[in-house]
Records
---
Amino acid sequence: MQLFYAPDIMPPLHTLGEEESKHCVRVLRLRSGGRIHITDGRGNLFCCEITDDNPKRCTVRVVSTEEGFEKMPYALTVAVAPTKNPDRFEWLLEKATEVGVTEFLPLDTAHSERHVFKPLRGEKVITAAMKQSLKAYRPTLLPLTPFREAVLRPFEGRRFIAHCAPARSPEGKAYLPDTLRAGEAAAVFIGPEGDFSPEEIDFALANGFEEITLGTQRLRTETAALVATVMASVVNPPKRRDL
Amino acid sequence: MQLFYAPDIMPPLHTLGEEESKHCVRVLRLRSGGRIHITDGRGNLFCCEITDDNPKRCTVRVVSTEEGFEKMPYALTVAVAPTKNPDRFEWLLEKATEVGVTEFLPLDTAHSERHVFKPLRGEKVITAAMKQSLKAYRPTLLPLTPFREAVLRPFEGRRFIAHCAPARSPEGKAYLPDTLRAGEAAAVFIGPEGDFSPEEIDFALANGFEEITLGTQRLRTETAALVATVMASVVNPPKRRDL
């Protein structure tokens, strides 16, 4: 299956952009009558037939539409500070998109290495990972948000803060896979390379966040964010019939 | 804590190599009387006192030794074909070392992108990840091994093969986190970018392997290998007292 991304697709007809037309006609050598799949990144999977194999503006006709294609049974927001090395953050965007995430919330924290975040490369990485892993839902990359603003952001679900300091709540830290339940929407805040400040942790806890641990290993911030993403997927196992 | 790696350390005295001496004395600005930790990568954590802060051959004296430092309660062999893009494989070595793995077994498979594997860079990545994540056990990077030889390799534990093709055994595929039990030693074989061949899958199954799935997502080979590594860690949750 060849998946193309067209957020602006308006069935029944669509004309691919120059780059994708070239990929479709020159690289994949598809001709009129050939089939491709297109997603709008909002869950719609369009099966299309090529009506004009023009290598610069390939036109297709939607022959069938599948809504909510492989919709995740849960919502997951991964909130993490962009890493000092941009490659590490882009790596996270790619891997978490493959595993399954609803939105990325880049955090500007007290110990953040970067206070400016250019989303362009990240957006490209997310789109490429979505297409490569044949997903019809494209994770949202939110703008860099100050920590407190991110904590106060309305969110329908449970909110967790993962940090390396000793627990600051009387309940102590829960192990994410033990506390998260199937189907629950979750926002997981991951500490930056210098971890969250005690004030940040207390502010989150005072605003309804739950303290969690991802285990006893010392993980890099981008590794921790991906581990949390995998843990959320393990809490929502595939249906037997899908295996 | 500053962790140094010295596979050849012979207590009570040890002299750091030129690079680590420079890091210790010039970069960290540690002086005689200062403390550092050294691991031999075999589970021993040595707390050492600097006796000679020579920036080219810093000498230390072991003041205390902790054996089996943070030993994993399970053994995990991750067997995967080196990716076409070496960075992706090195990324896996780093991340899986952080999360926890016993040994990496690079596979030479029917659909492998690479039939030659130079371990030097990978070894460096593993050592750096071990030190960065403060581990005293260094994962072993085995040589590139032909698939059938890898299947026939003696292994004390359960052996799993993860592939994207329909199940080829009457039992079908199990979901790794459902079938793996805490404390079990496991070897997980991950399909290459072109997946395992039907013959390879059948050969593994005929030799005691169990078919597994890591879920319904379509994961890149290096992502799948890391996901399996995280799943094994989730199956072996931390003790309450460690949280």
---
Amino acid sequence: MRRTIGSMLLAASALAAPAHADTLVDNIKGETIAPDGTLQSFAAFLFDDSGVIKTVYRPGDKLPKPGRKGYQFHIDGKGRVLLPGLIDAHGHVMQTGYALLTLDLSETTSLSDALARIKAFAAAHPDRPWIIGSGWNQERWGLGRFPTAAELDSAVGDRPVWLERADYHAGWANSAAFKAAGITASTPTPEGGAIERLADGRPAGVLVDKAQGLVDKAVPPPTPRDDDLALTTAEADLARRGVTGIADMGTSTRDWMTFRRAGDANRLYLRIMAYAAGTDTMAEIAGPGPTPWLYADRLRMGGVKLFLDGALGSRGAWLKAPYADKPDTHGLSLLSETQLGNLMSRAAMDGFQVAVHAIGDKANGVLLTTIEDLSHTYHGDRRWRVEHAQIIDPADWPLVTRIAANGGIVASMQPVHQTSDRLMAEARLGPDRLKGAYAWASLKQAGAVLAFGSDTPVELPDPWTGIAVALTRQDASGAPAGGWRPEERVDSLTALAGYTSAAAYAGFAETRFGRIAPGLRADFILVDTDPMTASPEAIRKTHVLQTWIGGGKVYDAESPAGGK
Amino acid sequence: MRRTIGSMLLAASALAAPAHADTLVDNIKGETIAPDGTLQSFAAFLFDDSGVIKTVYRPGDKLPKPGRKGYQFHIDGKGRVLLPGLIDAHGHVMQTGYALLTLDLSETTSLSDALARIKAFAAAHPDRPWIIGSGWNQERWGLGRFPTAAELDSAVGDRPVWLERADYHAGWANSAAFKAAGITASTPTPEGGAIERLADGRPAGVLVDKAQGLVDKAVPPPTPRDDDLALTTAEADLARRGVTGIADMGTSTRDWMTFRRAGDANRLYLRIMAYAAGTDTMAEIAGPGPTPWLYADRLRMGGVKLFLDGALGSRGAWLKAPYADKPDTHGLSLLSETQLGNLMSRAAMDGFQVAVHAIGDKANGVLLTTIEDLSHTYHGDRRWRVEHAQIIDPADWPLVTRIAANGGIVASMQPVHQTSDRLMAEARLGPDRLKGAYAWASLKQAGAVLAFGSDTPVELPDPWTGIAVALTRQDASGAPAGGWRPEERVDSLTALAGYTSAAAYAGFAETRFGRIAPGLRADFILVDTDPMTASPEAIRKTHVLQTWIGGGKVYDAESPAGGK
């Protein structure tokens, strides 16, 4: 009999089926958010060798027994709280990794403290050709002078070290860095800069202002090895915080290649919902439509990220009325309404999801109007994403409601931005426009799906702080008392959904992960705090004990080096 | 228990009896080249459900029986010749597909003949937004005038059609093309061009010289959908010629994305050994080292393609002595010797294979010297590839021998270039330099591994013509009698190896495909001619009856549209 590829693949898939070896997770206080937004409690669940959940057991259900007819592996939750792996609905994976790869000296209290940290950091990263860092301040150290290359050499002599001062107006180099940069006694001092020198003219260690460029240009640009390391570093940092999935907002071709290298080498464990950095990158990577889910649901390019305006702090956010603290500007739009519509059409016509950065009320109004216009052409389940949705004029809330009813709308918001921005936002907007600022409850009320994230590395990718802020609109110090515009707080179900089921829905992933339910991937965390019942202060201090992705443990607080 | 993906897989595997879903191929005259270069004949072979060969049976061996303990599927070779799938050691996959996607009118004998072909081509490609072609010549048609848009409209009215004349100095458009380009009676005639017009001034159909640009700029640039179509088209064309693998020489990021889309969608069947278009593309795609073999050995980026000089025809080939027919030039080098060494080092230090285009004797001399220098630094099995190796000064042959003994060297040559270039090469080189031109036998004698290819689309990717030329150094007409410098002919074993085992070796793929042997992929073809015994004329006319890749049929002459 002749055979076709089709029949061969069918047989091959049967061959690929795992041996019957299931894992039971029990002795847990399990909590997951159901599609209808209610809390589902469970006492145990079973997942198979491919890391897919087979059965979820409610309290009182009869559990399977060990053995061929039951389960072969067992995880004892020791009575702890088990939640679905958390999802950051808006972050930047590679930038997060790169931020973690540099040394932060902002907390150092003395030169010796700094030298010790530098030495430890270099020892912890033997593969790094250069040690790069920032944040030092000799005044804070009570040193009364700049530190020297010789002092830095005593900590790290084998490689160049280049550390920027807290104000970025000076840099501290070791001898290897000066050698790599070719800076000697005969190097002239650049215009607008200064080179601290020894008696014999050789560089002493610190370069000021324009002179920093002499070393900057010798620092090697990131290599693909650096990219691979940055990804692994980001994955590990997210895993220890209980984050098992993320929407990568603005994936470049280079980022994508890095994700694929990890997947091809079977070392990608984070679930990445990639949104291309613009429509050209989208088309180059994914082509005529979204990619399939790759690597057992760990990577997909399903959409595009566009920018409509800038940020509030720099007064780049596009406002309907002038800035309260700078009446001569409304901010700026990065795209005309026609350009925005064309770019969104280009993506939507090929079935890509569209995610648009919109901060100011004018940007959000224009975006919502454009979405409603496009929704007459592009039908079906679109889940238009508004990234940040920071200030939306209450007059535009009905637009949200209409889009929610026709195509769907996701408000992709970052709770911690509210506390970080509060005083700045009040200054920029004045009292009359605050009703529509960070208006989580109102946007949910209007019909938007709330997906929560961190915008990492802009903020730490810590979902526990995010949940605590979502419940209180207070910062770590408890300010302001009672919360800022507390009517926009959300309840604990909405907060947890924002970091699990709703964040998965926002990426068209709700049938794959984001809940503990049959047929979904076994992504889960064990924690020491119940976000449904604990105080916001306690939630903020949550310790993640274990993180599992696809039935594999990627973090264990008792052996943090763990990994896959 | 609830049914899940996992449990359905288990059920399927229970029914599939995977251990015995093998396929026996018998009743064949099987021939494959052994690693030692000798011919191995076989009467049958067995491959498993993953498309991997398990056992090869020599004539007289006892064959397994059908059933649970033997094989489940059977392919009757009907006594025909079975060979390993052929490999093109130097081609351009995407350009080959794009060349096939345009309509070739060079063979048309009349306007009605042309219109019929245009109509059929449009009907065969309903998804093409534009119909693009070339090669028409109204003189050859005996038309005595230019064809008209109205005539073209009668063949294709629903889409723009744009057909360049054989000399590319004129283009023939239909009304839809004029509409798309906005060309009307009021369109001024561009400087240096002409617009054939009707009495009322409307364009009549043909645009001459500079006026062609008016339509050219309206032709949409290729989309990712076009890329996907070009790849599928190239795969189908190669499959019908018996080609199951190819070295893609100069893979761009866009090409790579297209290959991956096909692999991700499980529609890539051609085996592509990708060599990146330069070291930057190499690093962007593959990162710190060659990619793994992807998609069951169907795609890998294992190396980089560099260019050291140009081509002989355009006198871009870099020669030691001046051109015989243009004594004021030696041709040109595209890289300095330092640049060449640096680029080769950048690739070699990360374990990438290096393939360098070298045509002229100076280019080949410089390349061989550079390889020998690098081989002191980069040890082990390197298989340095010289692409084309067209003219190598016999004084440099000892370099080939030394490199062969230390790192290994592949002469990646295209037999058909010899017949296409013969007269031109004699003119360019004069009589004294021909000894080192297209010197297949001498380079093999010197120790190089001969890998044969077509440089498709520069030449048709037809390995049968290549084998016939390799045996004769004669063109299709049999010229020159006795063959051109017949001392450089190779025997049939070397010719077949050049398109199978040696071509796989040249891409570090010899343990995966290129032979019929246990553990290798079941890539094979059934043909009507035995290249070991037939005359070169007969080999040239070989018909491929079936082409199989990885145990799946991708071409069947009895149902050419069939395959996957």
